[in-house]
Every structure is written in structure tokens, then in C-alpha cells.
């Protein structure tokens, strides 16, 4: 039986891929989370002014192109 390998992209990697954030900004957000900030990655990134909500929406839409039940935003 063949297995399909699914690789999940982390949001920080995706935002770098679409030009929404730099790798250094992603590292800063991840450091904050590691130090105990309980907010979601996107919440921290927006609060620090690294990215706006529209870039996060663009990224999320790019990850769900093939989802049959996805509704247009």
C-alpha cells in the first residue's frame, strides 16, 4: 500500500515564502513563544508590526486552495 506524504508548512515559513515576513522576524516571534508568550504566531507578528492581517489571510487562503468546503472570503 502506497503512503502519501503530506508536509505541513508552518505559518512562519509560509509568510516568508509569500514575502510577508523576513526570516529574522519569524525567529523573533518564535523566540517570544518559546519564552512563554501564549498568543498565536499571527497574533504576535501583527502586534509587533511585522505583518498585517491581510498578509496572514493571503497565506491562509494559499494553503486551502484545494479544500472542497472552503468558502470564498
Number of domains: 1
Helical stretch tally:
4
Could you tell me the number of beta strands?
Answer: 0
Unreliably modeled segments: none
Give the overall silhouette. globular
Helix fraction, binned, reads 40-55%
- What does the average pLDDT come to? 83
Give the end-to-end Cα distance, rounded to a whole number of Å: 38 Å
How large is the radius of gyration? 14 Å
Q: Could you tell me the strand content as a percent range?
A: under 5%
* Structural class by sheet pairing and helices: mainly alpha
Largest sheet: none
Please provide the ordered H/E string of secondary-structure elements: HHHH
Secondary structure elements and pairings:
Blueprint: H1 11-17, H2 23-34, H3 41-47, H4 53-63
Can you put this structure into words, describing what you see?
- This protein is an all-alpha fold and 73 residues long.
- The protein has one domain (11-63).
- Helix content is 51%, strand content 0%.
- The chain has helices at residues 11-17, 23-34, 41-47, 53-63.
- The protein is globular, with a radius of gyration of 14 Å.
- The model has no long low-confidence stretch (mean pLDDT 83).
Amino acid at each position: 500500500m502506497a503512503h502519501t506524504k503530506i508536509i505541513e508548512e508552518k505559518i512562519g515559513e509560509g509568510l516568508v515564502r509569500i514575502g510577508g515576513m523576513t526570516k529574522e522576524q519569524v525567529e523573533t516571534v518564535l523566540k517570544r513563544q518559546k519564552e512563554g508568550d501564549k498568543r498565536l504566531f499571527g497574533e504576535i507578528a501583527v502586534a509587533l508590526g511585522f505583518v498585517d492581517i491581510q498578509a496572514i489571510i493571503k497565506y491562509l487562503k494559499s494553503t486551502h486552495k484545494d479544500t472542497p468546503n472552503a468558502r470564498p472570503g
